[in-house]
UniProtKB/TrEMBL annotation, chain A:
Family designation: Belongs to the ELP4 family.
Protein name: Elongator complex protein 4
Native species: Ailuropoda melanoleuca (Giant panda)
One GO term describing the cellular component: cytoplasm
Keywords for the protein's UniProt record, in alphabetical order: Cytoplasm, Nucleus, tRNA processing
From TrEMBL, chain B:
GO cellular component, one term: elongator holoenzyme complex
Organism this protein belongs to: Ailuropoda melanoleuca
Lineage: Eukaryota, Metazoa, Chordata, Craniata, Vertebrata
Associated pathway: tRNA modification; 5-methoxycarbonylmethyl-2-thiouridine-tRNA biosynthesis
Disordered: region residues: 279-315
Protein family: Belongs to the ELP5 family.
Protein name: Elongator complex protein 5
PANTHER family in the record: ELONGATOR COMPLEX PROTEIN 5 (PTHR15641:SF1)
Main localisation: cytoplasm
């Protein structure tokens, strides 16, 4: 135990440490709250926009991706001005869900949305967004979802850590909408009034296509129109700071679905040596330039399993900032593998950007698997893979006839 | 349709096959040299025609007479045949050929205005892939399936079914993958000696895709006869994963405790494990105050001025 002393002159700084203890606090260290109004503009140098927060590591402004588990893996969230590329799973089930979570998070936070797609109309996509889980009515359902195997809180249970048994439990569930990341219920739809109250722009490529000539369009035609559309929205709504901001600053969330699929007019999924192999990479390059100069964040889903030329995939990865690959177990031999029975697929974090930073912000666990329960999309490290490879090595050594995948 | 082996089983299989067709959208029939798919295509066309739907056929690979052979007159009167086989490049200049070439013909089918359920059969998609770029074909097929969802001026939810025959040996993985991603249902034909089977993969929107394998044969009048299984005993070998893989089987450390070991573990006294009275005595001051206190004694070199350098941390 440290010597008991309180210093007289330093009461101002240490007093704030020891004295103010709120009910839910588990540490004795307190951050100083915001000062009196006179110094507000001075000390808050970062823009305070709804739904954003600065990164604790490098001060970069972050928005939530809609999945708090994914936010944690990406170092707190998606940085404003960057691109999140999702490599679609084979049947495009989970990647479209991640896409919808991103848009739903934008609606909850009041951000402006821009949705570009080829297969479904953007209005239909917005109708299918998951409903958010807000405090009161859902906390108990969430608790029963997660804490099924937690031991009940009783003083006897904690044999070794008995000193902590009277401390309040750390909150692990969804909280009110003022927080950074939200949880969503994939089985319910977002209420209509929230969608109508939000501001969104839609770009449905087949509509723009039909307005021009009938014959097959040139390869960069679809991408060029999309870039022009995005640029117009950014300029007209003032996300790049060009028009004087009379109103509150806001974030533009851009979502582009199935970029690179043949429906956009791009043939990188069809052949290996395509004529315009650079149109997609040019598009990503220009898009990144637009994003860096505006307050926007973009999510792109791309069917990379269809792209025939591996060099294109490597270039696309280099031109995006954060790249996450989803691999679902549906239809593959892993579906019946008992090791993977709790999970629906694997997540591969292929790339994390270094923004104003010298080091990457990677998580320790590299074998990540996800599972989608009704109200929760969790990502966990699947440690069992280590056990499997050790067992497999032993089997092969002993020359067993069983084959374990 | 003639009854198959078990009556109850036959009805169930019928329903499964019906559900394949009822899904709408693009149905991809992938065939190969050993297991050809045109007879199955004609069987499905006959089924649709018997249901009273309008059937449009874009014929590219065989002549119209050869295609209509085997259908009786009632069905033939329901089929509307668009012929691209006889003169695809319009050399005869008679004005009978479809304008715009293959792509124009396909896009003309998008612009149908006749109400009621419609089935469009494309014979074959391979021919179309060889003559028009893959991206244009995909966009045209996308437009067709969107016509299904939002028909121009018609009633909502008119089922439009597109049956496309694809010879999978003619194409590389690129076009096959691109067309598979557009299809709502994929039927791959294969089989064993003397018995054809169809492996059906149906992708309902926003649901997990479902696989099933259906053994069938097609009768001379193009009726579909669904069967239970292959006639010979050619069972697929057991899935290696059904032999349960226990990951804890061969590890080098002990994951299980015997009863005696467990008792010994429980009776072990740990350090800092005090009696319960002492525990309560130590814990009692806790709830009343702050959960922890820090006692700090500044030494001579500490900078204790009011201008805290961290005061702009407003995280």
């Amino acid at each position: 135990m440290a010597a008991v002393a309180t210093c007289g002159t330093g009461a101002g700084s240490t007093g704030s440490i020891a004295a103010a203890a709120s009910k839910n606090n588990v540490t004795s260290f307190q951050r100083k709250g915001p000062r009196a109004s006179g110094t507000d503009s001075g000390c808050s140098r970062l823009v305070s926009i709804a739904g954003t927060r600065p990164s604790v590591r490098n001060g970069q402004l972050l928005v939530s991706t809609g999945l708090p588990a994914l936010d944690q893996l990406l170092g707190g969230g998606l940085a404003v001005g960057t691109v999140l590329l999702i490599e679609e799973d084979k049947y495009n089930i989970y990647s479209s869900l991640v896409f919808k979570y991103f848009l739903a998070e934008g609606i909850i936070n009041g951000h402006t949305l821009l949705v570009a797609s080829v297969k479904e109309d953007p209005a239909d996509i917005l109708q299918e967004l998951p409903a958010p889980l807000l405090d009161d009515n859902c906390k108990k359902d969430f608790d029963e979802d997660v804490c099924n195997d937690k031991t009940p809180d009783s003083n006897i249970k904690m044999k070794i850590a008995w000193r902590y048994q009277l401390l309040p439990k750390m909150e692990s569930g969804p909280v009110s909408s003022s927080r950074f990341g939200h949880y969503y219920d994939a089985s319910k739809r977002m209420p209509q009034e929230l969608i109508e109250a939000s501001k969104w722009h839609g770009f449905f490529f087949p509509e723009k296509l039909s307005s021009t000539n009938i014959e097959s369009c040139s390869l960069t035609h679809g991408y060029r129109k999309l870039l022009q559309f995005i640029q117009n929205v950014i300029y007209e709504e003032g996300f790049d700071g060009s028009s004087p901001q009379k109103k509150q600053k806001n974030i533009l969330r851009i979502g582009i679905q199935s970029l690179g699929s043949p429906l956009w007019g791009d043939d990188i999924c069809c052949t290996e040596n395509c004529d315009n192999s650079h149109s997609l990479t040019k598009f990503l390059y220009v898009l990144r330039g637009l994003l860096r100069t505006s307050l926007s964040a973009c999510i792109i889903t791309m069917p990379t399993h269809l792209i025939q030329n591996k060099a294109v995939i490597a270039r696309v990865t280099n031109l995006s900032d954060t790249v996450v690959g989803l691999e679902s177990f549906i239809g593959s031999e892993r579906e019946t593998n008992p090791l993977y029975k709790d999970y629906h697929g694997l997540i591969h974090i292929r790339q994390i950007p270094r923004l104003n930073n010298l080091i990457y912000d990677v998580s320790d666990v590299k074998d990540l698997a996800f599972k989608l329960k009704r109200k929760l999309f969790t990502i966990e490290g699947s440690y069992c893979i280590f056990v499997l490879t050790a067992a497999k090595a032993r089997e092969l050594q002993q020359g067993s006839s069983h084959v374990i995948l | 349709v003639t009854p198959s082996e078990g009556a109850g089983g036959g009805t169930r299989r019928e329903l499964e096959m019906e559900s394949v067709l009822a899904l709408g959208g693009l149905v991809l029939l992938r065939d190969s040299v050993e297991w050809e798919g045109r007879t199955l295509l004609k069987a499905l066309i006959k089924k649709s025609a018997l249901c009273g739907e309008q059937v449009h056929i874009l014929g590219c690979e065989v002549s119209e007479d050869e295609f209509r052979e085997g259908f009786d007159s009632s069905i033939n009167s329901r089929l509307i045949y668009h012929d691209l086989f006889r003169d695809p490049l319009n050399w005869s200049q008679t004005g009978e050929t479809l304008p715009g070439g293959p792509l124009g013909a396909l896009q003309a089918m998008c612009r149908r205005t006749h109400p009621g359920p419609v089935t469009i059969a494309l014979d074959s998609l391979s021919w179309l892939l060889l003559h028009i770029p893959c991206t244009s074909l995909c966009q045209a097929l996308g437009a067709l399936s969107r016509q299904h969802a939002h028909p121009g001026g018609g009633s909502p939810a008119e089922p439009l079914r597109v049956l496309g025959l694809l010879h999978e040996e003619l194409h590389g993985p690129g076009p096959l993958g691109a067309l598979s991603s557009l299809a709502q249902t994929e039927v791959t034909l294969s089989g064993t000696v003397g018995q054809a089977s169809a492996h059906i993969l149906s992708r309902r929107p926003r649901q997990r895709p479902a696989h099933q394998t259906q053994w069938f044969s097609i009768l001379p009048d193009f009726s579909l006869d669904l069967q239970g299984g292959p006639p010979l005993e050619s069972q697929p070998h057991a899935d290696p994963h059904t032999a349960s893989v226990d990951p804890t089987a061969h590890v080098t450390f002990n994951l299980h405790l015997s009863k005696k070991e467990r008792e010994a573990k429980d009776s072990l006294t740990l350090p800092f494990q005090f009696s319960s009275e002492k525990q309560q005595a130590l814990l009692r001051p806790g709830p009343g105050q702050a959960t922890g206190r820090i006692f700090y004694e500044p030494d001579a070199y500490d900078d204790l001025d009011q201008e805290d350098p961290d005061d702009d941390l407003d995280v």
